[in-house]
Amino acid sequence: MIYLPLLVVLPLLAAVGTQAARTREKLLTILWVGFSGALVIDACAVLVSVWANGVAAYSIGGWPTGLGLGMVADSAGSLLLLLVCAMGFASLWYAEGEMKPSRNRAGFLSAFMFLIAGLNGMVLSTDLFNIFVFVELASVSAYILVGSEGRPGQIEASVKYAFLGTLSSLVFLAGIALVYDQVGALGLWSISRFAESGGAGPLGIPMLMVLVGIGLPGALFPMFFWLPDAHSQAPSSVSAVLSAAYVQVALFSVFRVFGQCLGRGGFGTMLLWSGAAAVVLGSMAALVQTDLKRLLAYSTVASCGVSFMLIGISTPSSFTALLFHILNHGLAKAAMFLSAGLLIHQTSHRRIDQMGSAWTVGRPACLMFLLGALADIGGPSVGFFDKAYSFISLAGISPYLLLILIVGVATLAAAYARAFQFFLGPSPAGDGRPAETPRSMMAATAVVSLPIAASAPLAWLLLDSLRVSAVNMASRVAIWAMEVI
Amino acid sequence: MTLGNLPYAVAFLIFLVGIYCALSSRNLMKAVFGFSISSYGINILFTQIGYVSGAGAPIYAAGREVVDPLVQAFVLTAIVVEFGLMMYILSLGVRMYEERGDMDISLLRRLKG
Fold first, then answer.
1. Per-position b or e across A392-422, b if 16+ CB within 10 A of its CB
2. Does A291 touch chain B (CB under 8 A)?
3. Which of A64, A192, A196, A388 has its CA 20 to 30 A from that of A13?
């Protein structure tokens, strides 16, 4: 499957190419449109082939079994790859309008392409060390993108993010060393075999260190403090791709390593309760925020909590819910961040209590924000299936967990309703003429929002295939495919 | 002669010294030094894991015992990754210095809530 390595190679080529063409504006546009368009097509090709065959694998360099590095995409992974590539395209399009003329456009595009390469690599990796390398590639690009406008708030958010990220990456690397000491290999297949043959005990501490490393970008409960700063300070295009793609990919990696590779010997109970804590804390914090993007960032924390709960349960129904949740939250949060950026641009305010003129000056943006908010709390879209399956799988474990999720979702709904109430409210005195909206920002937001509107019938039609891919997730098709690499 | 668990202990100690240095210092520059030191600790840990007593270098060696070549690749990759991270944090430090005249990270409290 030559399509798999292309998903990593193409963005790397694009990252180098944009640096080479840094002074030529037109060529830069052609480069990003061409490469990210090609990525979307490539991801579609992977999706089609995986859904026909169940799984796609590629062995780098064609080494004999057991020696080489590989790339594996199962059906959930291929959906995630398409999400990453599509969100990358939409966010870059949005950034065309958002970017100020004085900014270093080539540097931004280059960092963005490195981020896409890292994210695709994280989804495709078959061993821990490759996951580490791609996590670092994606993280460094994310630190750069968060601080890319150079405002003091962004520099502070970027410093905090980079500081915590470096700490967790060191712990991750030490954990990998200890896993290698115990297992003698780092392939997920070997680790899975080692854990199944009763060796899970000595892997406890090393895998906990690995969890720290992958859990930080996925905002695992005690390590989410960077997220509200980074996601709220970053340019809106970057916030969208960070919360729609990066967080989801990190969650998928946690699922791959702890749900699939370690199986029930993993940290199920721990993930379950730290997820529950994040749901409560994130949704409560979202309710009291005054900054619109900070509100969205805290709701991302809550949503990551839901994903960790679902990974912790690890039953086929919870994996169905996880798949729906990752797709739904990716789409919904991207639409909300992009439309929040539009609203901030149009009202020239960040605080929701000053955004009274939003409904009059930016009706389309308000509607797209509403669409995203509805999807996020389980409205009539793929979000409905996400919440339905989450409720079902949590109810099977404990009524208290179900209660926590219901309270969390209701609180998030209240937070969104509160924001929307301010949008409809009276406009504050002294507002000047509304700023003109670049067309590309509006178009990119619409491109992200439309799939949400269309997703309910689509998800209904695809329900059976999505269930099949959840069964694939539960039966660890991807891990088995790694055996032959 | 075998060293037993001594290399593990040394690696762990260096790792902890680096983490302590990074967490306790208010200057971003010193924090970067701390991160570098603890990454050296991890590199020593990797090297120790692949070490085979009395074995040679992993160049072509028919019938001769060699140390694990994989960990050396890990260490090289890890050095490159850490280098990139440190460079970025230092460049942020330069921005902070230009803006405020110092690199004190404990003053970063503008963002709250």
1. ebbeeeeeebbebbeebbebbbebbebbbeb
2. yes
3. A64
In this complex, the residue of B74, B88, B96 whose CB is nearest that of residue A129 is: B74
Per-residue pLDDT band at B1 (split at 50, 70, 90): very low
pLDDT tens per residue across span A167-181: 999 999 999 999 998
Q: Please report how the helices A75-98 and A439-461 are oriented relative to each other, as an axis angle in degrees rounded to 10.
A: 160
Q: What is the pTM of this model?
A: 0.93
Residues in B touching A169 (Cβ below 8 Å): 81, 85
Q: Which candidate, A187, A139, A107, A147, places its Cα nearest to that of B81?
A: A139
The single-letter DSSP state of residue A427 is P
Query: Looking at chain B, which residue has its C-alpha nearest residue A170?
Result: B39
Judged by CB atoms closer than 8 Å, whether chains meet at B77 and A167 is answered as no
Distance CA A326, CA A40 (A): 18
Domains within chain B, CATH numbers bracketed = 3-111 (1.10.287.3510)
Tell me if residue A24 falls in helix, strand or coil: coil
Q: Which of A177, A181, A233 sits opposite B42 (nearest CB)?
A: A177
Sort out which chain B residues have CB atoms less than 8 A from A157's CB and list them. Answer: 111
Q: For residue A231, which of A338, A74, A371 has the smallest C-alpha distance? A: A338
Condensed to tens digits (0 to 9), the pLDDT of residues A92-110 reads 999 988 887 767 888 999 9
Q: What is the pLDDT of residues A307-334, one digit of tens each?
A: 999 988 888 888 888 888 998 999 999 9
- Across the A/B interface, how many CB contacts are shorter than 8 Å? 94
Instruction: Tell me if residue A56 falls in helix, strand or coil.
Output: strand
Q: What residues of A are in contact with residue B49 (Cβ under 8 Å)? A: 177, 180-181
Question: Does A148 contact chain B (CB < 8 Å)?
Answer: no
